[in-house]
Amino acid sequence: MSNTARGYAAKNGSNKLELMEYQLKNLEANEVEIDIDHCGVCGTDVSYINNKFGTTNYPFIGGHEIVGRITKMGSRITDFNLGTKVGVGFFRGFCNKCSHCHDENENLCSLKEPTIASNGGFSNRIRVQANACVPIPDGLDYAKVSPLLCAGITVFSPLVEYNVSSMSKVAVIGVGGLGHVALMFLKKWGCEVTAITSTKSKATDAKTFGADKVIGTYDEKEQQKFSQYFDMIFYTIEEDLQWNNLLDLVAPNGRLHFLGLPKQEISFNILNLLRFQKTISASIVGSPKRMFEMLKFASKHQVLPVTEQFHFSKINEAIRKLEANELRYRAVLSWNL
């Protein structure tokens, strides 16, 4: 089998991706090779393409919401079969030696390797550690599932990690690529769900996704009705807000949880935290075990992102729409459209 792959690479920070051939690294004993069928386009990919974090090495091939079929297996692989449909998220490998790896919290491993560290999913083939893969349940739409490997696990993992109950009152800030999936999961979780959005036109969509209520970030009078109300608030956007006003919406013993990255450094009135035992936390993605739990839950309750489908050759159009905030709500690339 050939060691050559094809992928869409950014040659510089101009944001124009071009098809290139490259050599796959050698297949290790604990790795599998995957023929990629679909890959989601995430805002994080675009940030790396544009070198937002100052760490991008060009040529750069992004893509970390991968769905495909196993076509080759290393000598130590026993948990998968050739042809198995699997998903790969933000991490392609782990040290497999530390306490986090042993406790099935591989996403906390200090030596974890991002999928986009060396040619990601905007390609036709990839080689990753087998324990970074999760089987795709038959009950999920294979062409639409890929955003769950990043956006889905990002909003699902905190529900488990922080013991969110079906009695919880949860607000989601932002009805976008992350937020619309969060609304879906929370509704199926049984929570009372509120969407907080700056876009009036998304109010109807938010209710379709599962929101019981919709509050405008522009409507301070309406927000005052929810003082000390929410057990948890998910921040899913990348905009700066009035942080102390937002914290006022969190109930005693409640939690403000960051899933997005504000543009500027944030600060809070510590007295608000002290007096009511509130918590501020943050996370991204989750472990492979948690990803599989998420996919099983999504299959049982038919939670799927709203997607726009593009052939891989239209990747630059997909990125343009994402940057222009024109997507409703996630882009998925496919080789066979």
CATH architecture of the largest domain: Alpha-Beta Complex
Kindly state the number of beta strands.
17
What share of residues is helical? 10-25%
Q: Termini, distance in Å?
A: 25 Å
Largest sheet: 7 strands, mixed
Reported by name, the CATH topology of the largest domain is: Quinone Oxidoreductase, Chain A, domain 1
Rg over CA atoms: 20 Å
Overall shape: globular
What is the count of structural domains?
2
Task: Write the H/E string, N to C.
Answer: EEEHEEEHEEEHEHEHEHEHEHEHEHE
Mean pLDDT: 96
Q: CATH top level of the largest domain?
A: Alpha Beta
Strand percentage lies at: 25-35%
- In CATH, the homologous superfamily of the largest domain goes by the name Medium-chain alcohol dehydrogenases, catalytic domain
Question: Which structural class do the helices and strands define?
Answer: alpha/beta
Low-confidence stretches: none
How many helices in DSSP terms? 10
